[in-house]
User: Fold these one by one.
Assistant:
Number 1:
Amino acid sequence: MTDTADSLNRPAIRAVAFDLDGTLVDSVADLMHASNALLAELGRPPVDLPAVRSFVGDGAPKLVERVLAATGGIPAAEEAARCLSRFLSIYEADPSAHSVLYPGVAGTLDALAKSGLRLGVCTNKPMGATARLLDDLGIAGFFTAVVGGDSYPTRKPSPEPVLGLLGRLGVGPAETVFVGDNEHDVAAARAAGVARVLLVPYGYARVPLDGLPHDGILDGFADLPGRLSC
Ligand SMILES: O=C(O)COP(=O)(O)O
Ligand SMILES: [Mg+2]
């Protein structure tokens, strides 16, 4: 049911907003490679995949801070800022070499877009890398609007970027389903007042999904169309 209000007089769903890392794209390998290129320049030891997975979700500044903290400590502010900017130029130059869409993502986005739903991305990843990653993986064209971790003064778990995305999509929260992978997605989408918050079972969450105030955990991404209306 995407074009009429349901029997409880809830507005029909007109849009789906997606988180990016851990929801649409398994991106952690490229984040690890960029981190390790920076660490090599600093003469520090590398970080591994599980460590980087646990560092993702709060945007690039936090990721770099956690990488530095795990490999010898966070340097003084000026050097830490230089490390962030160096990481971003390494990562943004090629954010997709080792990154893949999760199973069912391309086909499901295509089906949802063809059904007339407006699709958007709300990620904590900076916009430069986000735009390039979506383009490289061939899914940029499905989205009417994309907002990144540097699009607004605050990022998820703040509702600000979710509400900003909905404004760009031209829909209200009550007409929107949010699909994410972690605790920040649930907090941001709930605070924005979206109709439903659904989670994927495979992402980078750092807390058990069962304890979060979501409206359902998908079996896989291809499960999504059947879960939009109930
Ligand atoms: O950049 C990050 O930390 C994670 O981004 P996400 O919001 O797409 O999961
Ligand atoms: Mg995520």
Number 2:
Amino acid sequence: MAKIIHISGLKKRFGANIVLDGIDLDFEAKKVTAIIGQSGTGKSVLLKTVNGILQADEGSIALDGKPMEAMEEKELLEARRRFGYLFQNAALFDSMTVEQNIAFPLREMLGIKDRKKIRERVREMLSWVDLEGIEKKFPAELSGGMRKRVGFARTLAPEPDILLFDEPTTGLDPVLSESINELISRVNRELGMTCIVISHDIAGMFAYADTIAFLADGKIAAKGKPGELARSNHPVLRKFLEYSFTNFDAYEDNQCRDS
Ligand SMILES: Nc1ncnc2c1ncn2[C@@H]1O[C@H](COP(=O)(O)OP(=O)(O)OP(=O)(O)O)[C@@H](O)[C@H]1O
């Protein structure tokens, strides 16, 4: 299987806080990889380091076999253009309409000036996320789920080939969460985009991801297909999965109290 990103020995600290302590991890092209782990273990820091928002202290991130830290400025800029990043809070510009938000990367990143072309692309993107006809609305007029979808459309608009999702379903109800996971799966299948997702929706990731990586103590403690991780004997991972999937013991205790 082709590796699109190869991470080796990646370290990142903030002062005395060692967050990433030697990450070795590959991402396969055109697959969905989920990164899971307890809060504060460094999942977002890892994603931001891959995307170049944060600078690693040590280690290497290679894109299609070429270490990004060795790239010339122009080459690095082109490499960065291949990434799309959907932030946790969708990060829309409040003073801009939906259309202006989605058009922003088309104008600023791709330099597209043709208004008709931009309008068509915005319409196409809104149709992708099932939000046709909301071009003139402002983010404040949208529900949280709609804002996430508009953020998704904006990330998709410049056609990146690697999509990074930071908690795409946080704050959404289970039905909306499922629809966002389904969207990720669709862009992966139909547009052939490589998707890297950090999520606390563990059941969703076990349902949709091809590969799952478990981050603990600054390292990738386990990695494999969902079934392989589910069968893993890694004690920290086991505990994490037991708590992540419905806690039936607590449910049964609660039922006993009610009856
Ligand atoms: N810019 C920063 N400056 C200083 N410390 C930071 C910075 N960004 C993250 N950290 C620290 O890095 C650690 C990991 O944070 P990170 O947000 O990556 O965790 P996470 O696994 O994504 O958590 P969650 O699941 O709660 O989103 C935390 O201790 C956090 O305080």
